[in-house]
Amino acid sequence: MSEAFELPEAGPLPEAGPLGGSVTVVGQGGAVGRELLALLGEWGQSPESIVGLGRGAEPGSGAGDVVFLCTPAEVSRAWAAALAAQDEPPRVVVDLSSAARRSAPLIVPEANGALLRELGGPRAQQPLLLAGPNCTAALAAVVLAPIQRVAGLAAVSLVSLQAASGAGAAGLAALEAEEAGGRALESPFPGPLARNVIPGVGEGRAGEASGEEQKVLWELRQLLGRGDLELEVTTTRVPVERCHSLALHLTLERDLSPEAAVELLEGSPGLVVHMEPHGPRPLECAGTDPVHVGRIRRGSAGPRSLSLFAVGDQLRKGAALNALQVAALVCASDRS
Length: 336
Ligand SMILES: NC(=O)c1ccc[n+]([C@@H]2O[C@H](COP(=O)([O-])OP(=O)(O)OC[C@H]3O[C@@H](n4cnc5c(N)ncnc54)[C@H](OP(=O)(O)O)[C@@H]3O)[C@@H](O)[C@H]2O)c1
What we know:
alpha/beta; Rossmann fold; Dihydrodipicolinate Reductase, domain 2; seven-stranded mixed sheet; binds NADP nicotinamide-adenine-dinucleotide phosphate
């Protein structure tokens, strides 16, 4: 029961604006790196203050005040170690891979952003390493955190419908090739994705939760501060370019009517509520910042059950935007 746990507090969302220093994006050519560079531009970061690096770069080279690691986990590990060993390390390193998620703070401001307050202060010797969460866990946390605070979560069932670009630039290229009638030579998927649904995102063995399902289980419990949460996760890959969708069925500890849930979610940061019967949908939500939530309705178990459908751009709030937000909050607290 959530009463036994100290629930994490949300923190503020930063105003969009330049980070106030130099920024390095490692993995600039990947799906997340490209999105982050676009976002930095939207946030007014001057082009001359941004260094983008790719495969040929030596770990630790070209590091600015803030470094984003938009790279595979093993590459991120090498970079984080090299940066930590520097005489003048960067102020903040945000690793968007899974490498540091069990050792570094894992933060989604709308769910547990208050944790960032404890990370302030001088850090002359070591850079502050923060981990970017799994995209599905991040999107789900934005929706579930306010509901948990008001009504408590007894159990959650989550089914994801994940976009091709969740598997990076290669995933998107594979879908595009298949949709054009061909077959990608190096598809990251275990079977054809166009006109198909592939259950079990990530590595997996028969009879076990897939790699993605294990990440979502651990990280969502972590973000919600609920190691005990009864949570069932089924992930699927669908032939959508970008935006993950989530079907959520909740058992609550206290009554919450659908009308009260709409009001709650409308007043919660990072969320947009949709009232139409057939939305939100990934195609129309692609490229937007908030998590979109709709189909808010009572579950069959009465006033302590609630069903919802959420859609979020996993390259933005599920990855680049969340990383930029936490870096901006740290930089702002360093200046104050
Ligand atoms: N895609 C998502 O929705 C999403 C969401 C959340 C988190 N993430 C995580 O974010 C990270 C990046 O994902 P992605 O989807 O952007 O993957 P991606 O499209 O495959 O891009 C990976 C990037 O890493 C670069 N890279 C590979 N080896 C490198 C090396 N040795 N040194 C420097 N750069 C290197 C690649 O460079 P080249 O272009 O030269 O190959 C590429 O730009 C992954 O850890 C992923 O798990 C992804």
